[in-house]
Design goal:
- The chain has twelve helices and 21 strands.
- The protein is an alpha/beta fold and 452 residues long.
- It has three domains: 200 residues, FAD/NAD(P)-binding domain; 110 residues, FAD/NAD(P)-binding domain (3-Layer(bba) Sandwich); 105 residues, FAD/NAD-linked reductase, C-terminal dimerisation domain (Enolase-like, domain 1), CATH 3.30.390.30.
- Helix 1 runs parallel beside helix 4, helix 3 packs across helix 4 and helix 3 crosses helix 6.
- The N and C termini lie far apart (60 Å).
- 43% of the residues are buried.
- The chain binds NADPH dihydro-nicotinamide-adenine-dinucleotide phosphate.
- The site of NADPH dihydro-nicotinamide-adenine-dinucleotide phosphate has 21 residues, from helix 6 and strand 17.
Length: 452
C-alpha cells in the first residue's frame, strides 16, 4: 500500500486512542508512524485516570485506619502522610507505564517519533524538522485543561500540576462541579487538606441522575468537604501566606492552592490543520463523520480532540473502529449508547444508561427501584457512609434502561451492569439472577418494591 507515501498511517498523539490505532494498523502489516511531543500514554496514563486512582487509594486510608478500631485493631489511629513518598512512588509507577507504552509501540513495528508533529498538507506531516508523507493522518492529540480568564486566574492551577505538587497545602479551593473537581476534592480531603469546593451551579455532576448526584454531594459534605454551591469566584489575590480566593458572596477563602477543574479543551492550536479541509468547532475540537473522517478525506481524528465522549475506553473503541474502517472489513461501528462510567469521588458514583430524568423524558411510563443502606464495613467500623442503588425500568418493555450506584466499589459493580444493559436485560432478568451474599452488589438483583 505504501508505494507513493512514506506511511500508510501517521498518528499524531500517543495517548490511549492514538496508540491503539497505531498498534492495530501495524498488526495488519501497515507502515505506521506515531509522533508524541510530551509523554507516552497521554492524559490518562500521565495526568489523568491512572495517577488519579492511585491518589484516590491513598486518600482512603484514614477512614480504613479509623474503621479498623471497631474490628479490634489498635495502633493504626494516627498514621501520618508523607506526600513526597506518595507523589514520587506514583511518578515511578507512571514511568514504568511509559516504558510499557514505548515497548508496545516499538514491538508493533510502528516508528515512534519523539517530537511535536505538525500537519503541513492533507498527506504531509513534519516532525523534528523533517517532512513525511502519509496516506492517512490521524489526529489523536487529546485535550488540555481549560481555566477561564479573570483577575488572578494565573494563580490558579489545573489538574496537571496537582500530580507534581512540591507539598500539600493546609487548605485548598477546588473550582468546578464535574468529574475532576469532585474527584480531587475527595482526594485532597482524604489526604487531610481542608478542602473547599466552589461550584457556580446548584447541583454537582449535573449530567448525572439528580438523586445520585445529590447523594454524592451529601456524602462529600459528610466526609468534611466544605461545599460552596451557586457560588462564583470574583478574583484570586496573592497573599504572604498563599492566596485569597474572593467569592461573589463577599467572603473569601485563604488557601495554599486553587485548583480549576473547569473542563478540558481540544489540543488543536498550532497543529497546522489550516493546511487541510478539517473543520473545527469554536472550542477547537475537530468535526468528524461516523467514520472519524474530518472534512479532509485523508485526515481523521478521534478521542478527546473530537469532543464526543471524553473517556479513555471510548477513545480505544473509536481507534478499533477506525482501523477496521481504514484497513479492515469496514463493518465495525461504535455505539455511544449505554456507556458505563464512574466518578471516583468519595463516595464513588457509577452509572450506566439513562438517568431517571432522561428516562421520564424518553418513555411513557417508568418504574424506579431504590435501595439505600449502610455498608457492612460500617457496622463495626463506624463512619457515615451509605450505599444507594437505583434501577430505572421502562414499564412497557420491562427493560432496565438505567442503573446507578453511589458508594463503595460502584465502578466495579456498574461495569457488570453495563453488560446487562447492553444485552437488553429486563427487570425480570435481574429478579431471576441469584445474588452473591453478603455483598452490596446483590441489592441490584433483590429490589422488589417500586419506589415510584
Ligand atoms: P466537566 O466538563 O466534567 O466539568 C467542568 C465543570 O467546570 C462544570 O461543572 C462546569 O460548570 C464548570 N465550569 C466550566 N466553565 C466554567 C467557568 N468559566 N467558571 C466556573 N465553572 C466553570 O470537566 P472536567 O474538567 O471535570 O473533566 C473533563 C472531562 O474529562 C470529563 O467530562 C470526563 O469526560 C473526563 N474525565 C473522566 C473521568 C472519569 O472517567 N472518572 C475523570 C476525570 C475526567 P457547568 O456545569 O455550570 O457548566
Amino acid at each position: 500500500m505504501t508505494t507513493e507515501f512514506d506511511y500508510d498511517l501517521f498518528v499524531i498523539g500517543a495517548g490511549s486512542g492514538g496508540v491503539r490505532a497505531a498498534r492495530m494498523a501495524a498488526s495488519k502489516g501497515k507502515k505506521v508512524a506515531v509522533a508524541e511531543e510530551r509523554y507516552l500514554g497521554g492524559t490518562c496514563v500521565n495526568v489523568g485516570c491512572v495517577p488519579k486512582k492511585l491518589f484516590v487509594y491513598a486518600s482512603q486510608f484514614p477512614e480504613l485506619f479509623h474503621a479498623s478500631k471497631g474490628f479490634g485493631w489498635s495502633g493504626a489511629e494516627a498514621p501520618t502522610l508523607d506526600w513526597a513518598v506518595l507523589r514520587d512512588n506514583k511518578t515511578a509507577e507512571i514511568e514504568r507505564l511509559n516504558g510499557i507504552y514505548n515497548n508496545l509501540i516499538n514491538n508493533s513495528g510502528a516508528d515512534l517519533f519523539d517530537g511535536r508533529a505538525t500537519v503541513t498538507g492533507p498527506h504531509q506531516v513534519e516532525v523534528n524538522g523533517k517532512g513525511y508523507s502519509a496516506r492517512v493522518i490521524l489526529i489523536a492529540t487529546g485535550g488540555w485543561p481549560y481555566i477561564p480568564e479573570f483577575p488572578g486566574s494565573d494563580l490558579a492551577i489545573s489538574s496537571n500540576e496537582m500530580f507534581f505538587l512540591d507539598e500539600l497545602p493546609k487548605t485548598a479551593v477546588v473550582v468546578g462541579g464535574g468529574y475532576i473537581a469532585v474527584e480531587f476534592a475527595g482526594i485532597l480531603n482524604g489526604l487531610g487538606v481542608e478542602t473547599h469546593l466552589v461550584y457556580r451551579g446548584p447541583n454537582l455532576l449535573k449530567s448525572f441522575d439528580r438523586e445520585m448526584s445529590d447523594k454524592v454531594t451529601e456524602g462529600m459534605a459528610a466526609k468534611g468537604v466544605h461545599m460552596h454551591l451557586s457560588t462564583q469566584i470574583n478574583e484570586i489575590i496573592k497573599t504572604d501566606a498563599g492566596i485569597s480566593v474572593v467569592l461573589d458572596n463577599g467572603s473569601s477563602l485563604d488557601a495554599g492552592l486553587a485548583l480549576y477543574a473547569t473542563g478540558r479543551q481540544a489540543n488543536t492550536a498550532g497543529l497546522g490543520l489550516e493546511h487541510t479541509n478539517a473543520v473545527l468547532r469554536p472550542n477547537g475540537s475537530i468535526v468528524v463523520d461516523d467514520n472519524f473522517a474530518t472534512g479532509d478525506p485523508s485526515v481523521y481524528a478521534l478521542g478527546d480532540v473530537i469532543d464526543r465522549v471524553q473517556l479513555t475506553p471510548v477513545a480505544i473503541q473509536e481507534a478499533m473502529v477506525l482501523v477496521d474502517h481504514l484497513f479492515g472489513e469496514g463493518l465495525a461501528r461504535i455505539d455511544y449508547g449505554d456507556i458505563p462510567t464512574a466518578v471516583f469521588c468519595q463516595p464513588e458514583l457509577g452509572t450506566v444508561g439513562l438517568s431517571e430524568e432522561q428516562a421520564r423524558a424518553e418513555y411513557a411510563d417508568i418504574d424506579v427501584y431504590l435501595s439505600d443502606f449502610k455498608p457492612m464495613l460500617q457496622t463495626l467500623g463506624g463512619g457515615s457512609d451509605r450505599i444507594t442503588m437505583k434501577l430505572v425500568v421502562d414499564r412497557a418493555s420491562d427493560r432496565v434502561v438505567g442503573c446507578h450506584m453511589v458508594g463503595e466499589h460502584a465502578a466495579e459493580i456498574i461495569q457488570g451492569m453495563g453488560i446487562a444493559l447492553k444485552a437488553g436485560a429486563t427487570k425480570a432478568h435481574f429478579d431471576a439472577t441469584v445474588g452473591i451474599h453478603p455483598s452490596a452488589a446483590e441489592e441490584f438483583v433483590t429490589m422488589r418494591e417500586k419506589a415510584r
